[in-house]
Write a structure and sequence with these properties.
Layout (H helix, E strand, L loop, with lengths): L7 H11 L2 H5 L3 E2 L5 H7 L1 E3 L3 E3 L2 E8 L13 H6 L3 E4 L7 E8 L5 E3 L3 E4 L5 E3 L3 E3 L4 E8 L15 E6 L2 H8 L4 H14 L19 H11 L10 E8 L2 E8 L2 H25 L17 H10 L4 E5 L2 E2 L2 E7 L2 E8 L2 E9 L22 H9 L5 H16 L7
Parallel strand pairs: 10-16
Antiparallel strand pairs: 1-15, 2-4, 3-4, 4-13, 5-6, 6-11, 7-10, 8-9, 8-12, 9-11, 13-14, 14-19, 15-17, 17-18, 18-19
Helix pairs in contact: 5-6, 7-8, 10-11
């Protein structure tokens, strides 16, 4: 299978978005040493990695986690199935806008950022975590990534959760409140990368791409039991796709993590399958014998960075306290309730560390670099990873040519 040629706009999206983060971070203050999140991190440990093809997962366990503690909040899907959650679509226009969430039950409902809702004129995904108090109504900020609205006879009167999260790049756009037009462009590109000829479909159809379905199912089978590992003290994970950090997610309890893991895993499986499709690897075997712990030490170092993060308090949507977090190339949001961590999402910028035994990324938007220019850059040690491999291949081709015999 030939690799999919990515549009330059998609390749630079993360760089453009993360460039906006320092402006947000400048308003914050260093997180205090006695902050509940810092105390929570101090009792966590990154476990050994689990790798299958393009997806590498490092479970994160917490020493004080009680495996017998099964208390947790209801998820959006559970509450909707029991008719305890109703979701309204107040605006039919594309872009950013709120959706109405009403909790009819006597227990709080936790809805994660990135949760996808379908059924209305357009699919929408939440941009922030929401903890809805019993018997209360909130207006939660959401994004529309669909380019084309449903027809009037196809649109339902209310929205419903699909039990999936938006892909990592869309969640990042929402996390830093990026432009909605960029979200629509990214979704269109991902439909094309997934092998779908109709990039104007709704977001909820993205994970049903025929090209990626079998591979996504394979990933779900391999990683499905992660919440049961480490004596059921696992409360989160760090995931890498193609050796690039996709994100870090932490939950207050193992029970909370277990409840949300299936839809998070579906998103990770999609990200990994999309990576394979982009580089023409869906039908190819991956190199055997790779060490799954090759990123373990750097991952622990990244976790340590969170101790010195800058946080900006924000008014939570519903119950709890929300903080915007940033540290170097990391950006995220924290949701706390009653001085305890409920959920933390941490995402990374666009820097890609491609493994030596995987295909290099596509060439820059400007096209190939001339051999002479590569040699000059090599002398100054200013080659990118892609250019270094390109130069090696050029040198091998030159060496393989037989010398020209004089006439």
């Amino acid at each position: 299978m030939r690799p999919v040629r990515l549009r330059p706009a998609l390749l630079i999206t993360l760089f453009v978005l993360v460039a906006a983060v320092p402006g947000l971070a400048a308003k914050g203050k260093p997180i205090a040493a006695d902050h509940p999140f810092v105390k929570f991190l101090a009792r966590t440990a990154v476990q050994r990695g689990r790798e299958h093809r393009a997806l590498l997962v490092y479970p994160i366990a917490r020493e004080e986690a009680d495996p017998k503690d099964v208390t947790r909040f209801a998820t959006a899907t559970e509450a909707h199935q029991k008719k305890r959650l109703s979701v309204g679509e107040p605006e039919k226009k594309p872009g950013r806008g709120p959706i109405d969430l009403f909790n009819w039950s006597t227990e709080p409902i936790l809805i994660l950022s990135g949760e996808v809702f379908t059924g209305g004129h357009r699919d929408r995904f939440l941009s922030r975590d929401v903890l809805i108090a019993p018997g209360s109504r909130v207006k939660a900020p959401a994004y529309v990534a669909d380019k084309k609205p449903r027809k009037k006879d196809e649109a339902e009167k209310s929205l419903k959760p699909v039990n999936v999260l938006a892909p990592d790049l869309l969640r990042l756009i929402a996390l830093i409140e990026g432009p909605a037009a960029r979200a629509r462009e990214v979704l269109s590109d991902q439909f094309v990368m997934a092998g779908d000829n109709n990039p104007r479909q709704p977001l909820s159809e993205l994970y049903r791409a025929k090209l990626l379905g079998p591979r996504s199912l394979e990933y779900r089978t391999v990683y499905g039991a992660i919440p049961d590992e480490a004596a059921k003290k696992t409360i989160g994970f760090a995931a890498l796709v193609g050796d690039r950090l996709v994100g870090i997610e932490l939950f207050g309890t193992n029970a909370e993590f277990r409840a949300h893991w299936p839809k998070i895993l579906d998103t990770l499986a999609f990200e990994a399958a999309l990576y394979e499709a982009a580089y023409g690897l869906l039908g190819q075997p991956f190199p055997p014998g790779r060490d799954p712990d090759r990123h373990l030490v750097p991952m622990k170092e990244r976790m340590k960075k969170l101790y010195a993060a800058t946080v900006t308090p924000e008014k939570a949507i519903g119950l709890g306290t929300e903080l915007l977090l940033s540290r170097d190339d990391l950006v995220g949001r924290l949701l706390l309730h009653e001085k305890k961590l409920v959920h933390a999402t941490v995402l990374l910028d666009s820097v890609t560390a491609t493994a030596p035994d995987l295909p290099p990324p596509p060439p820059p938007a400007g096209g190939e670099v001339s051999p002479g220019e590569l040699e000059r850059r090599a002398e100054r040690s200013r080659l990118t990873e892609y250019e270094r491999r390109l130069l090696e291949r050029m040198r091998k081709r030159r060496a393989a040519k037989p010398p020209v015999k004089p006439e």
